[in-house]
Amino acid sequence: MVKPFTCLRRTLPPILLASAGVRAGLVLTDPLRNPDPFALSAVRHRGLGMIERSYELPLPERGVVAHALARSAKTAGMNLLVSGDPYLARRTRSSLHAREKDMYGQRRLQFFGAASGAVHSRRAIDRALALNIRALLVSPVFPTRSHRDARVLTIHRFARLIRGLNVPVFALGGVNPRTARRLRGIPSFYGIAAIDGWCLGGFNKGVFDEEKD
Fold first, then answer.
1. Backbone angles phi, psi at 145, to 5 degrees
2. What is the spatial distance between Cα 148 and Cα 156, in angstroms, rounded to a whole number?
3. CATH fold group of domain 12-204
4. What is the pLDDT of residues 151-161, one digit of tens each?
């Protein structure tokens, strides 16, 4: 089992954002690596948003968690995005996040105009743009334990992939204060997204696991 991480509520977000030279960041919930999303939503740092991803919970329980997170995030001045569930996003008055698989098939039009979307290729980027998705999470930029066998984009491929895009692009996958420095100055790069890169455990590891959609 992955050991849960202890989050530093105030010190790490500005360190991580400053390392990348950006002001915007997205915190992704995860039942193993940041098992207390309410602690994360208590982080008060301008420019942070949170993506709720409680896929493992039955729908009624997920609804309870999402509503509570929406209240907590609102108190902290943090925008909440609900992943993969347009109905729950509406019920909690939250923004909607689309996983890459949500952009295909019969449900794809339910994600038209979503606040953000997870993409891993140019094909997926084009699909997201066709659906008028307003921000992109591109991954995995760096090695990540979430998807050990996934092909890592690397800095150069990431830069080529997002070149010329006119929507905000967040880098996801292995982002931490050390690797974030390598993202500085890339055109179209807007912010960072991470699971435990915001936390003490993630800060101290050599390879970070930040990649699930």
1. -75, -20
2. 20
3. TIM Barrel (3.20.20)
4. 889 999 999 99
